[in-house]
Amino acid sequence: MAKIMECIPNFSEGRNEETLKLLAHAVTSTPGARLLNHSADANHNRSVYTLAGSPESVLEAVFKLAKTAVTHIDLTRHSGEHPRMGAVDVIPFVPLAGMEMSECVELSKALAVRLWNELALPVFLYEESASSPERRNLAVLRRGQFEGMARKIERPEFKPDYGDKLHPTAGIVACGARMPLVAFNINLSTDDIRVAEAIAKVVRESGGGLSCVKAIGIMLEDRNTAQVSLNMTNHIKTPLYRVLEFVRFEAARYGVSVIGTELIGMAPMRALVDCAHYYLGIENFNAEEQVLEHFMLFPNNDPNEASASR
Question: Side by side, which strands form the sheet with 213-220?
Fold first, then answer.
């Protein structure tokens, strides 16, 4: 089986169309790498690009993306709702087919060496690539953001894994390997950001809420709408519908309702199939036997292969 790797780099730019086009071109101009999806949000001032292909092709495309970001994104002039510490803020590698997580870990380290040596961009290793358990969590590494990062990395416990000083305009990047993450936002019928912040505090795992959930409250200025912005680090342990209903329940305490949701980038099929199963209440549902696409993707209907799509 051919090796296929996915990468979902996040960039601190969601407004400059020319820069966004240059980022897309960095992928589409790389043989063997395919741009699957890209989205940009002006309120967050952030963009997410999803690419996949052979490990070598993806590695080259991601380096070109990082070089474009370092050249065209200046964090000293950046503002936006989403926390950030780098022009290219995070680079996660995900094994899709024919690969082990350990291979993605080694590739993340190979990229980190090149980012520092060629772009003077320091690197934190995170998630499965982390050099210590305390560095697995991206939120911990990013705390203090770009403005506070120069002093933060002077502390021994936050010394970069690669590099020894902050890039003056591009900051620092987190690079690592992980399982698929679902970026999922829930919009509320209020313009009071305090409601979104209060809900985010109780829904996220670190606040005693749901396992594998990270959440913050932000304001969508162009829509005058408060939002609970979530990262679902394991959609199997905690499915999307459970988070949505939790937020809906908490919002009712403030006389607020859910008016819509957003899926940022791509999501595994199982994350959406599980929601359909829950809301439709299908009895004795079996995705491998009842979802047509399983038979197109896995014509032999091998249960071991089918489970990979979930």
Answer: 213-220, 225-232, 182-188, 258-264
**Tens digits of per-residue pLDDT, 284-310?**
998 888 888 777 766 654 444 433 333
Which pTM value belongs to this model? 0.77
| Residue with more model confidence, 201 or 1 | 201
Please give the radius of gyration of the chain, using alpha carbons only, rounded to the nearest integer.
20
Q: Tokens standing for 112?
A: 């980190």
Label residue 136 exposed, middle or buried (CB < 10 Å: 0-12, 13-18, 19+).
middle
Catalytic residue among 78, 82, 277, 294: 82
Q: What are phi and psi of 199, to 5 degrees?
A: -70, -45
Placement of tokens 């995900």 in the chain: 94
Pairwise CA distance, residues 300 & 152, whole Å: 53
Which two structure tokens, joined as six digits, stand for 166? Answer: 């902050």
* HSE-CB of 16 using CA atoms within 13 angstroms: 15
Span 43-52, pLDDT tens digits:
899 999 999 9
Amino acid, single-letter form, for residue 187: N
Q: Is 82 a catalytic residue?
A: yes
- Structural domains in the chain, CATH included, are 4-177 (3.30.990.10), 182-267 (3.30.70.670), 271-310 (no CATH)
Cα separation of 85 and 55, whole Å?
A: 26
